[in-house]
Amino acid sequence: MNAIFNRTSVRKYQNKEVEAEKIELLLKAAMAAPSAGNQQPWEFYVVKDKETLKALADASPYGGCIAGAPMAIVPVYRTELMMPEFAHIDMSAATQNILLEVVEQGLGAVWIGIAPLKDRMDKVAEILSVPDSLVPYAVIPIGYPVAQANPHDRYDESRVHYEK
Predict the structure, then answer these.
(1) Which CATH number fits domain 2-145: 3.20.20.370, 3.30.9.10, 3.40.109.10, 3.30.40.10?
(2) pTM over 0.85
(3) pLDDT at site 46
(4) 3 state DSSP class of 62
(5) Which among 56, 79, 29, 57 is positioned nearest to 128, based on CA atoms?
(6) Which of 33, 77, 97, 106 makes a 20 to 30 Å CA pair with 3?
(7) Dihedral-angle region of residue 112 (phi above 0 means left; psi in -120 to 50 means alpha; beta otherwise)
(8) Are the C-beta atoms of residues 23 and 107 closer than 8 Å to each other?
(9) What's the CA gap between 25 and 32, in Å, rounded?
(10) Element (H, E) at 104
(11) Model confidence over 29-47: pLDDT tens digits?
(12) d(CA 31, CA 164)
């Protein structure tokens, strides 16, 4: 539960490369996510090129921090699926797993939403030359945080309803 309660959105990163072993663990965590009918719709682009990161930063009005990250993972999903209506749910689970493993690896990250906004999805697809059979879902800039943020307790008892 440490990762769940200590996850924060990190937008400023040290100028330090993320080790290949840690990247692989992030991807393994993503692929361990549950998916509807076990369809596992995901594929992932690992981006380290500074020019590409700068271009991705312009794909969303909230993406400026991507340019300052040493890397990003871009989850994409396949268009040919058994249950395409669940792709976004499946991708959310995979993305959350990445964010949780980021904490375990002593890294920082933030989820930059791309889907379901077509203009953002098209821009990311163009930047990465994503084939038509794949759809960009998010951009996750990742790196060693400049500073550790204090996580917030978001528990709100008023939002819990017990059936009598």
Answers:
(1) 3.40.109.10
(2) yes
(3) 98
(4) coil
(5) 56
(6) 77
(7) beta
(8) no
(9) 10
(10) helix 87-104
(11) 999 999 999 999 999 999 9
(12) 38
> What span, in angstroms and rounded, lies between the C-alpha atoms of 67 and 12?
10
Locate the domains of the chain by residue range.
2-145
**Does residue 75 have a cis bond before it (omega within 30 degrees)?**
no
Q: Write out pLDDT tens, residues 53-62.
A: 999 999 999 9
> How far apart, in whole angstroms, are the C-alpha atoms of residue 67 and residue 57?
6
Separation in Å, CA 158 to CA 43, 118, 161: 38, 35, 8
38 backbone dihedrals φ, ψ, rounded to 5°: 55, 35
Pair of tokens at residue 127: 């930047």
The C-alpha atoms of residue 58 and residue 56 are separated, in whole angstroms, by 5
Q: What's the pLDDT at 53?
A: 98
Cβ contact 70:143 at 8 Å: yes
Distance of CA 9 to the CA centre of its chain: 11
